[in-house]
Specification:
Structural class: alpha+beta
CATH superfamily of the largest domain: Nucleic acid-binding proteins
CATH class of the largest domain: Mainly Beta
Number of helices: 3
Number of strands: 7
Number of domains: 2
CATH topology of the largest domain: OB fold (Dihydrolipoamide Acetyltransferase, E2P)
Radius of gyration: 24 Å
Shape: elongated
CATH architecture of the largest domain: Beta Barrel
Strand content: 25-35%
Distance between the termini: 84 Å
Strand order of the largest sheet: 2-4-5-7-6
Helix content: 25-40%
Largest sheet: 5 strands, mixed, barrel
Oligomer: single chain
Length: about 140
Amino acid sequence: MYGRKVKLRFLFILLILTTLILTVFLILKSLEENVVYFQSPSEIKEISELDKKKIRVGGMVKKSSIFITSNEVKFIITDFKNEINVTYSGAIPNLFEEGKGVVAEGFLKDRNFFSATKILAKHDENYMPPEVKEALGNK
C-alpha cells in the first residue's frame, strides 16, 4: 500500500514528535519542582494541611514590627487582613523597612509562624538609589 520511503518518513516524524513531547514534559516537570510563587498571609491561613515544601510569603512589613537582634530579625508580614510572624537570620536587603513590600522565602512552622531563608525586598517603579538621588539633588 505505502512504499518503503513513506513508511520511513512516517516513523522518523513519529520519533521526532515523541522525542519533542517527552522533552517538553521533562522540562515542565523539572520546573514544577523549582518554581516558587508567593502567597499572602490570608492564603496561608486558608491552607488545609501544612507541608514541608519551601514557599514564599509576600506582603507588607507591618509598622513597628521589626525587632533586630545580633543574629536574627523578627518582623510581621501583613496583607491588611491577616498577619504572619517571620524570623530570619542573615543580611537583610537595603530596601527592607517598615511599610514596604517584602517577599520572604522559607518554611512554614505553622499558620502564624514562618522561618525565612531569604528576604527579597520589593520597591515600586518610582524607586531611585540613594546615590542617584544625591547626585540629582546637587545639580
